[in-house]
Amino acid sequence: MLNKVVSNIDEALEGVENNMTFMVGGFGLSGIPENAIEALSKKDVFGLTCISNNAGVDDFGLGLLLQRKQVKKMISSYVGENAEFERQMLSGELEVDLIPQGSLAERCRAGGAGIPAFFTPAGYGTEVAEGKEVREYNGKPHILESALTADFAFVKAWKGDTAGNLIFKGTARNFNPLMAMAGKITVAEVEELVPAGELDPNQIHTPGIFVQRIFQGEKYEKRIEQKTTRKRD
Amino acid sequence: MALDKNQIAQRIAQELEHNTYVNLGIGIPTLVANYIPKGIDIEFQSENGVLGMGAFPFEGEEDPDLINAGKQTITTLDGAVLFDSATSFAMIRGQHVQLTVLGAMEVSENGDIANWKIPGKMVKGMGGAMDLVASADNIIVAMMHTNRAGESKILKKCTLPITGVNCVKKVVTNLAVLEVTENGFKLLERAPGISLEEIKNATEATLIIEGDIPEMVF
Predict the structure, then answer these.
(1) Contact B73/A102, CB-based, under 8 Å?
(2) What's the complex ipTM?
(3) Helices (H), chain B
(4) From residue A58, how far is each of A44, A54, A174, B120, B166 by CA, in Å?
C-alpha cells in the first residue's frame, strides 16, 4: 500500500511555482478545495493559469487568488458572481478562456485518460468553434477539442484514506474526480482522513492512483452561494 | 393579457411527457417544476451532477454539498443519483436527457439561440448551455417576446453571439407559442386576449399564420 499522506499544507503545496497551471475542483463554491486555495492565496506565486468551472466570489474561493492578482489566465465555463474578476477581465489584466461546461469536464477527463483530443457537437457554429477542426459524424457537425492537463490539480473530497482513495458527497463531486485524473501532481484535501482499509473498495469514487498527496483539511466553511428554502406548511 | 413568468412556465409544463428526463435552465425554466401535470412522471437533471432533483429544502435543512446548476440549495427525491460533471454531460451529449428548457436573449427563425454573452456588457460564460443546445432532441425556449424597449427578440437572425445553431424546436413567450419550421416561426397559440396584430408587431422574424390561432388553455 502506498502512503500519500502529507503532514501539513506546506508539504501539500511543495513545488508550486510561478506561471504554473492549476486545476481547481468545485462547482460554484460547492466542493472547492478551501484549504489549498487559502494557503495558495498566502503564497507568493503569480502568473498562474487556473482551470476551474467558476472563479469563486470576491472574498472566497478562487476570488482570493484574483484579489492578489496571482492569476494570469482563467479557463472556465461560467464566471458570474465575481465583481473583481469582471473588472480584471474587462480591463484586460486577466486573460479568460470561456469554454462549454461539458467540454471542460471532458477535456479534463481526456487529459487524465490519455486521450489527446475528441470531437463534440457543443459550440459548433459559435465563437467557441473558431479555429477548430470541424468534422461531420452521423450527419452532424462536431468540433475538435483538445485534452487539458495541469502541473497541479487541487481537489476536495468528503472522505479519503491514506492510499489516496476518495469518496465524494452530494453535488460536491462535480469536477473533482476528473481534475484528480488530469493533474501531474494531484493534491486531495478531505474532511475525514482514515487509514487504508477502512473505506469499502466498492464505494470509492476516485482510485488513489490518481492522487499524489492527501491531507485532512483544518476547517471547512462550506459557504452557500444561493440559499433557497421553502416554507413548512 | 400577456403571460407572466409563472404562466410561461405553466404553459411549458404542458409539453412535458410521461417518464422522461428533463433539464431545466436558470430563470423561468426553473419554475416549470412547479406545474408538472397530474399523471406525468419526470426526473429532473441538473448538470452539476444530480438526477432526481426535488424541491428546495426547508429552512435550516440546507446542505452546502447539495445544490443545482444555479447554485441554489436543493433536495433529492427517492431514486436520485449523484455523479461527476463528465458523466453528467455524457447524459446530455449522449441524448439520454429528452428535453431541455432554457431561457434566451434572442432566438432566430432557423432555430439559433443566443443567451450567453452581450459583448462589452455581460460576459459571464455559457456554462452548460452550449452542450445542452447542441445535443438535446427537444429544446423549448422560455422568454419574453420583446426587450424592455419593446424591440422584438424573435428575429430573422440573432444579433448577439450565438449559443447554438439550428437547435430550438419551440418558443413559449409572454405573447405566443411558436414552432420553428423550415420557413419561419409558425404561430401555434396566442396568450389569452392577445391579438394577432400584437404578436405580428412584436415579431421581427418571419411569422407563419395558418387558419384560426387558438388561445392558450390553462
Answers:
(1) no
(2) 0.97
(3) 5-13, 28-31, 85-93, 129-135, 196-201
(4) 19, 12, 21, 21, 37
CB atoms A171 and B49 under 8 Å: yes
Give the strand order in the sheet containing B207-208.
Answer: B76-82, B50-53, B42-46, B20-24, B99-103, B138-142, B170-172, B176-181, B184-190, B207-208
- Whether A232 and B56 lie within 8 Å, measured CB to CB: no
Q: Are A106 and A148 in contact (CB under 8 A)?
A: no
- The three cell numbers of residue A208 are 488513489
**Whether the model pTM is above 0.95:** yes
DSSP 8-class letter at B20: E
Sign for the CA dihedral angle at A135, A137, A140, A145 comes to: negative
What distance in Å separates the CA atoms of residue A32 and residue A62, rounded to the nearest whole number? Answer: 9
Q: State the sign of the Cα–Cα–Cα–Cα dihedral B187, B190, B196, B197.
A: negative
Write out the DSSP string of A125-180: TSGGGTT--EEEETTEEEEEEE---EEEEEEEEEEEETT--EE--GGG-TTHHHHH
CB neighbours of B67 closer than 8 A, spacing ≥ 6?
Answer: A27, A28, A30, A171, A224, A225, A226, B48, B73, B74
Q: Which residues of B are catalytic?
A: 47
| Tens of each residue's pLDDT in chain A, 233 residues | 799 999 999 999 999 999 999 999 999 999 999 999 999 999 999 999 999 999 999 999 999 999 999 999 999 999 977 888 888 988 899 999 999 999 999 999 999 999 999 999 999 999 999 999 999 999 999 999 999 999 999 999 999 999 999 999 999 999 999 999 999 999 999 999 999 999 999 999 999 999 999 999 999 999 999 999 999 87
From first CA to last CA, the distance across chain B in angstroms is: 13
Interface residue B55 vs chain A (CB under 8 A): yes
Which of the residues B63, B74, B84 would you substitute to probe the A interface, choosing the one with the greatest number of A C-beta atoms within 10 Å? B84
Can you give the C-alpha Rg of chain B in angstroms? 17
Residues 119-148 of A with CB under 8 A from B: 120-128
Using alpha carbons, list the distances in angstroms from residue B42 to B33, B38, B45, B58, B218: 9, 11, 10, 22, 20
| Cβ separation B65–A228 shorter than 8 A | no
Q: CA torsion, points B15, B159, A128, B51, in degrees to nearest 10?
A: -20
For A100, the closest of B58, B128, B165 (CB atoms) is B128
Kindly identify which residue of chain B lies nearest to residue A121, measuring between CA atoms.
B134
Degrees, nearest 5: CA angle A63-B128-A54: 5
